[in-house]
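Sorry to interrupt, but I need a hand with the structure work. Please put the record directly below this note.
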Amino acid sequence: MIVIGICGGIGTGKTTIANICKKSGYPIFYSDAAVAKAYEQPSIISAVAKIAPQSIIGGAISKESLSATAVKDPAFLPK
């Protein structure tokens, strides 16, 4: 099986290409949707709370806060 990744900035046509592929019968995996679903899992919320407690807001993971933490502190990310 061949796997193709579609990447690019905002407004570059990723969704358009994905929709064309989907209409042509190719399976599509939407990583954004998978990550959003994962961020709802209690085990993931708990793991994030241990390493970045400031990123848990109202019992949910704040992607914005988690991203800011990672950008602000390069040591936060594993090598």
User: Anything to note?
Assistant: Helices lie at 14-23, 31-38, 42-51, 63-72.
